[in-house]
Specification:
This protein is an alpha+beta fold and 266 residues long. The chain is 18% helix and 34% strand. Strands 9, 10, 11, 12 and 13 form a five-stranded antiparallel beta sheet that branches.
Length: 266
């Protein structure tokens, strides 16, 4: 509490610099449990007794409330399920990712919330009736697409479990360096193809008094290249006229479908 205002922060954060202001009243927070802070938002949890689906809502500007998480334990008959509300919840979140991974104490599955879209991913459920794995008691961390959890075994012992997450759960995106590298490769291929076309056109022109002509007007020099076949068959004027009525869908030389086109300067 500072200057009459409430603040929240993670245990590992600076309580002054990294604290988030709780911009709602004490009445609005009644019955809510603080799970932690992520990306400038205080994450709270609320569990009701009704069997409504998991949901998420915003309070004020800086507060997110997660509600109604259930333990879906598969019985020996995989069609039957035992659904129980959970009131003890653990959360794993880092500011580097919009994803929040949540599990109840001794639950059979965990939930993943995307705080950018405010939607839950499909929950991941452990197959309890087949392999009898430990129940999840704590999420230790997520790194390189692997999640590590602490589990409680049937005999009361502890087990450390690590498993790969589906790509949709990791939130991985291509880095800027990877994107730039792919763009550079595409540009290099286009430059090579254009240079090859220029060489071929010069050779054809030198072997003919008039040089190549547009296959449509039979007059102007062709300068539109088609992809992926890389044929130069029409002039810019005829290409624009044909494109207006969609009559030029295939290359006049090889009849392959035209995916892209570009003007080439010879």
């Amino acid at each position: 509490m500072r200057n009459g205002k409430q603040f929240a922060s993670n245990l590992w954060d600076d309580p002054v610099r990294d604290a988030v202001e709780i911009d709602v009243s004490e009445r609005d927070l009644n019955g809510l449990k603080l799970l932690g802070v992520q990306r400038g938002k205080a994450i709270f949890f609320s569990q009701t007794e009704c069997l409504s689906p998991p949901s998420v809502r915003k309070l004020g500007v800086n507060v997110i409330v997660i509600e109604n998480l259930f333990d879906k334990k598969l019985d020996r008959n995989p069609v039957e399920k035992v659904v129980m509300p959970t009131k003890k919840v653990v959360m794993y979140a880092r500011d580097s990712s919009p994803l929040i991974h949540i599990s109840g104490f001794c639950m059979w599955q965990f939930y993943t919330l995307d705080t950018e879209t405010m939607n839950f991913r499909e929950e991941l459920i452990f197959n309890a009736w087949k392999h009898r794995p430990p129940r999840v008691s704590h999420i230790c961390g997520v790194r390189n697409g692997q999640i590590t959890v602490m589990g409680t075994t049937w005999t009361g012992g502890r087990a450390l479990i690590s498993a790969p997450l589906p790509i949709a759960w990791t939130g991985k995106k291509k880095s800027g360096a990877q994107k730039n590298s792919e763009k550079d490769k595409i540009i290099e291929e286009l430059v090579d193809n254009v240079e090859k076309l220029q060489s071929e056109m010069k050779e054809k022109t030198s072997n003919s008094l008039e040089g190549p002509s547009c296959v449509i007007c039979l007059d102007r020099v062709p300068n539109i290249v088609f992809f992926d076949c890389m044929h130069v068959a029409v002039c810019e004027e005829c290409f624009k006229a044909a494109s207006r009525n969609s009559s030029l869908n295939n290359c006049p030389n090889c009849r392959k479908s035209i995916k892209k086109s570009s003007k080439v300067f010879f």
